[in-house]
Amino acid sequence: MVAFVAVSVLLGGLVLLLVFLFKKAQGNSTPEPSIDQKVNGQALPEKQSTKKHKLHKLRNEKPQQHTFTHPLLAAVLKAHSGNITCLDFSSNGKYLASCSDDRTVRIWSTKDFLDREHRSMRANVEFDHATHARFSHDCRTLIVCLANGETLRVYKMTKKDDGFTFSAAPEDFPKRHKAPIINIGVAETGKFMMTASSDTTIMVLDRKGAVLATINTNQMNNAYAAVSPCGRFVASCGFTPDVKVWEVCFGKSGEFREVCRAFDLKGHSAGVCGFAFSNDSRRMATVSKDGTWKLWNTDVEYKKQQDPYLLHTGSWSGNEPCRIALSPDGRVIAISSISDITVYNALTGDVEEEFHSVHGEVITDLAFDTCNRFLVSTGDRAIRLFHNTAGYRAAIADMKETLKKATNKGTKERLQQQISEAQKALNAVMKKKN
Predict the structure, then answer these.
(1) In the chain, count of helices (H) and strands (E)?
(2) Mind listing the pLDDT tens digit for each residue in 418-433?
(3) Radius of gyration of the chain from Cα atoms?
(4) Which of 1, 275, 281, 404 is most exposed, with the fewest beta carbons within 10 Å of its own?
(5) What is the rounded CA–CA span in Å between residue 88 and residue 414?
(6) pTM for this model (two decimals)
């Protein structure tokens, strides 16, 4: 028993001795400076210091803005810090809305487009970012689609003494779609909204977000969908080589009745990538994977089985992703291909202008302003506005042809005045170009 106790005491002493020697060795060693100590000025080896400096510099540097110049470039709108996903002009022509993955929505004043400074009103998109934005019929409300929430949020402009405030409604609309939303639309009549997802679903909603009707496009997938400027039609395109158009019908007292098939645009030999309406919805332009674009007359009595008829077919040699825009008067077509833009005379098919590498990323939206003065594009952090010289030339040529056939003196004088004004505007732009 005594021997056992003696062995235990001896082992315990050895353990204590080892612990003492270990702690002493640690005390004599030089500790490695912590990250905080390095930041606070502790001496560092030159190699590590340079590495930290470079890392700090990279974190603080902003991504370099894509540079683009062209004689017809009228203005560049810069305020977003992230890539812009959508543009929309208000129907009264006073505002341009833009949304970005920087979690902001901005409204620009169109009267400032040619000024040095471009004012914008900003609203933050809390906990998400907007992929699409559309003005309501009153031009004071903006409907946006949320990327992560896959639903709609309403922003309202409220007038105050020193201008406007721009704020979100208390609650978002309920999530309706099972697939990602590819576009939204608001009828100019104010009677309905539209949301389209990447499957084959289009939903027609009332102003409070309740579902009025659900459309199955039967196109395998939806590539694009939109509401016509007149507020009567919803159209979609996808995997199939046609565009399908429905009429959203309401009763005399404003109650919703039904969604019925209006007409189809048939003629392409491959899937349709996109389409666009003229301002009066009497013309439509389509672009297809078959390498052609088409201009259609849609001012027909479809209820009497009259089909839209083809006005012109043009060719394009671009690549997807692409977008198409039709000028408000239906005289000019613009097609984007990745980051390039080609402008065509809609009636002759002639190439009027070509803009290459307009944006540093794929062009996400392309549109003409409501006054037909500018072609607007985006895709990176900037919005670029081009003078619509093709529109001026097409309008002058069209009015000159009309003047030849005119017999009424008043009509001739009015046309001559309009030709003179258009030519003066074109000359002013071309003077700046040269």
Answers:
(1) 5, 28
(2) 999 999 989 988 877 6
(3) 31
(4) 1
(5) 32
(6) 0.83
